[in-house]
Amino acid sequence: MTIRRGSVTATAAVLTVAAVSLTPVIPASAAGTGAESKASKRALALMPSKIIAGLNFSMAKRRYALCAASDITPSDQTTVINGRKYTVGTGLCPIVKGWTVYNKTLQGKKVTVTGKGTIWSSFGYPSEFAQYSAETGWTVGPAQPRVQVVGAGSNQGMANFWGFPCAVTKPVTIDGKRYPMAMCAGPIMENINNRPVADGVKMVTNAPESATLPVGGAEITKGPLVGFEKFFYQLAQLSVTQ
Length: 242
Hints:
By secondary structure, the chain is mainly beta. It has one domain (16-236). It contains 2 helices and 13 strands. The protein is globular. It has a 5-stranded mixed barrel with strand order 3-5-11-10-6.
């Protein structure tokens, strides 16, 4: 299948790898101190309070924040997506450049990402990117997808950071090289069909097992979009062949 750069619009579906107002039981640790704390406040200020999410997505080669392996910290802020309230979290994500699929409808009624100090989160498959784990610290390497079951216990939640606003922040230095970073905001426990994620379903994430609230995407088990998450992953993987 060949997909050209451009826009694809539909009326009956909703696409947004996201993440439910039913916040899982996880440690609500601070988003960091100093520069990270300030960046978190900036990212939260960029997050729309209300979003009407539809399906209007494009594929383009551009810079974006890749949160696929990020661990998210819940905040006391919420957002309403298609009439449902979700807790918003923040996470540190590397800025990369490459082919990405993004949903234009997630920006809300007023576009908040403008200028060099902000950037959109999105998903793609770069050959390698900066990623963090409590065990190894910051390293650079390829994506390492894994599957886990979504639940209400510690380390069993998920967050969606595809197509949401980020504040550009201080770069991270790994082996003497500086990697640009962004602090991103996004909903917790909402899935690509813009509905709450159900406990007991499988999710895919690139975050390490130590992540308390990993970014990921869960399988869809109800509604007209059952299995649609596989289509999204196929679109994202096209970046490898572009």
